[in-house]
């Protein structure tokens, strides 16, 4: 088996590429380097620089490397930006995916893992979100991910490709400091960024019907997420594409445990030594009071269970942040 990982030099992609390579899988990474960092990948891992929406490039890569499975991680993923630029998100996340799938079909690739998101659910009023919870996304980003799932499944059924859609919840942490998230759009690095600049962390809304009034979320360590991809890849590898045991797998990737935003700010203060009282601002439109995954399907069908807790996520993310921002350490 040779797996092509799109977005392979990104924050999540590099973790997935390393986990699969360490487990003995042959891996080729593809990245347009808009946010990817080549140094995240092992020196001996092939890295193709370019876009998955470039049909000629994909035809060449899939053939030259004899790719038998694709893990599609590359995508635009900022909710606010998707509201401002829906055409950009539909072009890259849906039209680009169409080009990639056309190349996959032409090359005879028979396994396809799709990076989806809990954003497909919208704001369901349930205690635990299962894979059967109705999908009702509330922003263009979530819409493109749900449309991507439909497209992947339909292509799989029509062309005998075994497919899987992995619905991530909130990804955090780092397996190694140099692999940490370099952006500031996710909540934990967002807190770090404000603390580094001498500003208080922000909590958006404290009047939700939760124990402390702040939103409750499910956080998954990126190393656990990478291991989940490996488990799903091997599950697809063991099935006969197009046969009765083929078809589609849709799974949540989370811990099944909720952590409130206020609890998270307290933990960040303990780990970083920056004990700054957070400021409360008005809630953001569309934010759910609670969004916690049921991870039962991954455990029951694939034997995968998250191993890392939220403190490990914050501690490892902080080490990575301080590697790039040494001035952030509390004196």
Largest sheet entry: 7 strands, parallel
In quaternary terms, these chains amount to: single chain
Based on CA atoms alone, the radius of gyration comes out at 19 Å
Write out the strand line-up for the largest beta sheet, numbering strands in chain order: 3-2-1-4-5-6-10
pLDDT < 50 stretches:
none
**First-residue to last-residue Cα separation:** 50 Å
Q: How much is the average pLDDT?
A: 95
CATH architecture of the largest domain: 3-Layer(aba) Sandwich
Here the CATH topology of the largest domain equals: Rossmann fold
- Count of structural domains: 2
What's the total number of strands?
13
Q: What would you call the shape?
A: globular
What's the name of the CATH homologous superfamily of the largest domain? NAD(P)-binding Rossmann-like Domain
Q: Order of SSEs, N→C?
A: EHEEHEHHEHEEHEEHEEHEEHH
- CATH top level of the largest domain is Alpha Beta
Number of separate helices: 10
What is the helix fraction of residues, given as a range?
A: 25-40%
In percent terms, what proportion of residues is strand?
Answer: 15-25%
Query: What structural class results from the helix and strand content?
Result: alpha/beta
């Amino acid at each position: 088996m040779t797996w092509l990982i799109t977005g392979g030099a990104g924050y999540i992609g590099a973790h997935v590429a390393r986990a699969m390579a360490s487990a003995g899988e042959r891996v080729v990474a593809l990245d347009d380097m808009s946010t990817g960092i080549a140094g995240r990948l092992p020196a001996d891992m092939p890295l193709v620089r370019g876009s998955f929406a470039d049909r000629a490039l994909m035809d060449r890569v899939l053939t030259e490397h004899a790719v038998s499975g694709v893990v599609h991680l590359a995508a635009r993923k900022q909710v606010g930006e998707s509201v401002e630029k829906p055409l950009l998100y539909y072009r890259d996340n849906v039209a680009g995916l169409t080009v990639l799938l056309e190349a996959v079909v032409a090359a005879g690739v028979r396994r396809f893992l799709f990076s989806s998101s809990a954003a497909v659910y919208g704001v369901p009023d349930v205690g635990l979100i299962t894979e059967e919870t109705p999908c009702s996304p509330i922003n263009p980003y979530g819409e493109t991910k749900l449309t991507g799932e439909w497209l992947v499944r339909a292509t799989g059924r029509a062309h005998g490709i075994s497919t899987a859609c992995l619905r991530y919840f909130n990804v955090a942490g780092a397996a190694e400091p140099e692999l940490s998230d370099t952006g500031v759009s996710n909540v934990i690095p967002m807190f770090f960024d404000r603390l580094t600049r001498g500003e208080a962390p922000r909590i958006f809304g404290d009047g939700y019907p939760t124990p402390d009034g702040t939103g409750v979320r499910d956080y998954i360590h990126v190393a656990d997420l990478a291991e989940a991809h490996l488990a799903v890849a091997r599950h697809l590898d063991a099935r006969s594409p197009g046969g009765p045991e083929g078809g589609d797998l849709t799974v949540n990737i989370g811990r099944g445990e909720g952590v409130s935003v206020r609890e998270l700010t307290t933990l960040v203060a303990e780990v970083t030594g920056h004990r700054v009282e957070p400021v409360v601002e008005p809630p953001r439109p569309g934010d759910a009071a609670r969004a916690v995954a049921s991870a039962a399907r991954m455990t029951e069908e694939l034997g995968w269970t998250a191993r890392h807790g939220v403190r490990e996520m914050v501690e490892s993310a902080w080490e990575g942040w301080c590697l790039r921002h040494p001035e952030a350490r509390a004196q």
